[in-house]
Amino acid sequence: MTVFAQVKLPYAKDALAPHISAETIDFHYGKHHATYVTNLNNLAKGTEFENLSLEEVVKKAPAGPIFNNAAQIWNHDFYFMGFKGAAEGGGGKPSGALAAAIDKQFGSFEEFQKQFDAKAAGTFGSGWAWLCKKADGSLSLESTSNAATPVTTGMTPLLTCDVWEHAYYIDYRNSRPNYLKGFWSIVNWDFVAANFAK
Ligand code: FE
Q1: Is 68 helix (H, G, I), strand (E, B) or coil?
Q2: Helices (H) and strands (E) in the chain, counts
Q3: Taking the model in full, what pTM does it have?
Q4: What CA dihedral angle connects 93, 98, 100 and 106, to 10 degrees?
Q5: What is d(CA 16, CA 3) in angstroms, rounded to the nearest whole number?
Q6: What's the confidence (pLDDT) of residue 29?
Q7: What is the number of other CB atoms lying within 10 angstroms of the CB of residue 137?
């Protein structure tokens, strides 16, 4: 039987501060994300999903609790892997083929950021903003609600921003725009470029 687990954070819990505090990591990674794992392990037991990989569960589970918990584990694993502390080289701008693709699609990096921010700000209620690569190699900005994920659409996710309030309420209270400003300071562009190269 598969024991579903969270990705191990490749940085210390205070590495993303002040943009994302250690307290937010304690709650967001340590409680919200962890609870999805506990839930999925309980829900999958004795079902056709108990021996599948996490990604297979996300792709095969019908709408409902198993999908919601599996997709939230996948989305959060991906979100937390997308960061690197500003002191360790997080933030800044992408380079190489990824930078060229962003320029080609959006005109400039600044325009891409503006459109990504608009996608995140315009996600009503709880959800996720994404930069994805489509099957034809072009880039696309997506917004998904609740646990929904591009994993089920055939697109390749490159970068995501969790815009559920639990992602920013401790550090930014209700201000999603201020959270987004902090977000750009800790993006791990090596992670995004590796996803782009897939
Ligand atoms: Fe979250």
Answers
A1: helix
A2: 9, 3
A3: 0.97
A4: -80
A5: 28
A6: 98
A7: 9
CA–centroid distance, 194 to ligand 1, in Å, is: 23
Please give the distance, rounded to the nearest whole angstrom, from the Cα atom of residue 80 to the centre of ligand 1.
10
Cα–Cα distances in Å, from 40 out to 150, 157, 172, 192?
A: 20, 22, 30, 27
Ligand 1 centroid to residue 69 C-alpha, Å:
11
Comparing CA positions, the residue from 194, 197, 198, 179 lying closest to residue 81 is 194
Q: Which amino acid is at 16?
A: L
166 alpha carbon – ligand 1 mean position (Å) = 6
Task: Give the pLDDT score at 112.
Answer: 98
Do residues 196 and 101 lie in contact, with contact meaning Cβ atoms separated by under 8 Å? yes
Tokens of 194: 């590796």
pLDDT at 177: 97
Looking at residue 171, its pLDDT comes to 98
**DSSP state for residue 187 in the 8-state scheme:** B
pLDDT lower than 50: segments of the chain: none
Residues paired with residue 143 on neighbouring β-strands, in sequence order: 129
Predicted local distance difference test score (pLDDT) of residue 1: 79
Please tell me the distance between residue 100's alpha carbon and the centre of ligand 1 in angstroms: 30
- Cα-to-centroid distance, 153 and ligand 1 (Å): 20
Q: Is 147 helix (H, G, I), strand (E, B) or coil?
A: coil
- Cα–ligand 1 centroid distance for 126 (angstroms): 9
